[in-house]
Design goal:
Elements (H helix, E strand, L loop, with lengths): L16 E4 L2 E4 L3 E3 L4 E4 L4 E4 L3 E3 L4 E4 L2 E4 L4 E2 L4 E3 L21 E3 L4 E2 L4 E2 L4 E2 L4 E2 L4 E2 L8 E5 L2 E6 L6
């Protein structure tokens, strides 16, 4: 964790941190580059498949459940967060919002730089997430390019070439 460096980050000050109050499951090798941060709350469960690779400054905040499949590649300065930490109230019904929802990321997904993946998101196998994309819903079609804020399906029948 944190030994590989990317030339644009400060090798002296970009440090990794990990805080686990819940559970973290690793199914194989996982690599977290310089400046990566993981926070798992007491009710959180982070499950990471084999051959996970994060280049630098990835943040994962897990208060409920985040599942990352095998062969996921995350580029720098991305964030995966299953909670928004704030409850809201519908003034008509007085019902509280759900401030945590599971995140599921399939096998062989490539998360581009500076992506944001929010609560309730689902990304199927083989998808590529373009740089600066915000994922905030469930996608079902595998092997697609997802891009934008919020993300939309841009192209089909593609996947990462490792």
């Amino acid at each position: 964790m944190g030994f590989h460096s990317v030339g644009i980050f400060d090798k002296k000050y970009e440090r990794c941190s990990i805080q686990i109050e819940g559970c973290m499951e690793l199914s194989g090798k996982a690599y977290f580059g310089q400046g990566c941060r993981i926070c798992i709350g007491k009710d959180g469960c982070l499950s990471i498949g084999a051959n996970f690779f994060a280049t630098a400054n990835l943040s994962i905040i897990c208060m409920k459940k985040i599942t990352l499949g095998d062969g996921v590649l995350a580029s720098w300065e991305s964030i995966i967060m299953d909670s928004d930490f704030h409850k809201t109230i519908n003034l008509d019904t007085m019902a509280n919002s759900n401030n945590t929802e599971d995140i599921s990321i399939g096998n062989n997904v490539w998360i581009g730089m500076r992506c944001t993946i929010l609560k309730g998101s689902s990304i199927p196998n083989g998808c590529v997430i373009a740089a600066n994309t915000v994922i905030c819903k469930k996608f079902v079609k595998p092997n697609c390019l997802l891009a934008g804020n919020p993300a939309i399906l841009k192209r089909t029948n593609i996947t990462i070439n490792r």
